[in-house]
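Onboarding guide, step 5: your first structure request.
Type a short instruction followed by the sequence, for example:

Predict the 3D structure of this protein.
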Amino acid sequence: MVLATALGALAPLAQAQSLLELYDSARAFDASYQSARLQYDANLARAAQARAAILPTAGLSAGVTHNGFDNTNPPISISFNSPSATLSATQPLYRPANWATYEQGKSQLDLARAELDAAEQDLIVRTAQAYFDVLAAQDALAFVRAQKAAVDEQLAFARRNFEVGTSTITDSREAQARFDLVSAQEIAADNDLRIKQATLDQLVGKAGSQPKSLLAPVLLPPVAPADVNAWVQQSQSVHPAIRQAQSALDIAGLEVQKAEAGHKPTLDLTASYNVTRDPLSLMQSGISSRANTSSIGVLLNVPLFAGFATQNRIRETLSLKDKAQSDLEAARRAVALGTRTAFLGVLSGQSQVKALEAAEASSQSALDANKLGYQVGVRINIDVLNAQSQLYQTKRDLAQARYNVLLGGLRLRQASGALTPDDLQPVNAMLMR
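The system replies with structure tokens like these:
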């Protein structure tokens, strides 16, 4: 009853928010995620720029030339302006480097998407971590306060027994010492809750955010699929880190093609139209002169020698491509190890929860037995106090272990690269309405 009252005081359900609600708030407020989102938008625009390399270009140029003419015999001095304008356009017909740049733009889109997915998965885990940290801190404070009330009750009992002469002053002093210790633990637990609450508030952009507690009894979901190899296999195709490394390898391969294109000719379609007005003709013959010139053709450019720059550039890009291949292999190995570690962590956590549930029941039985033994004189007060401490420590550990399992399930999905906001739904369904 004391514990339920303490938990109720810490968690006003009328103002509580679910995990999904706080995640939506964090998604709209968190500076790190917003930075990743804006970087993604910038990467989209940068990738689209690569398409310009295969599209036609056009330009308009205009100018005025001031001319002066002086003659001594006969004496003539003339000055005039000659305006002109040129419209030109070029369409690449054969430019291997430009097409490689265009293909690189597509790979950069994949790279940008993988980076944003990684940022989103990180936000999901950070939100869940902050959420469960607050719940764990609330539980810890509630358990400490419940233990404090129980110790206070034991202290009063020891004092009454001392007054009637059925116990020594040692029992009272032991209970008082334990009461003072639990009071110090209460102060530390209260401070920890304030810190965890501030962390969650900063993440979601809300003051006084209040997570909903887990429904009782807590039924933890099993790991599905139960085969670690299935998780590892899945991670090799969807994990953002592997996708980023694969895109980087594709971009490096296209960079090799761009370097090799330095040996290849280029062919462009060109067209121009020029208008030039000559006022001098009007002065000399009385007839205004305006020249209109148009041209269309193809321009072939064949590279012959560039001081070995092209050959060395090819060597450089080949080495960078090999490096990208090694980075991809390293990413695959790291993801596989991380996935296996996360999978084993969830299994271990579930086993720990079962063991702590049994330990809670055993600790409660031990406390009841010690209380009865103290009343009949076969146990001393310190036995009861130790049993109380063990029980509430077990309760704290059990609550933390349950949160760790739920968070571990999300971390497992993140480790395998499959974590999405929809994965918060099963966890959210386990919270109080």
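Each response can be followed by summary notes, for example: The chain has a mean pLDDT of 89.
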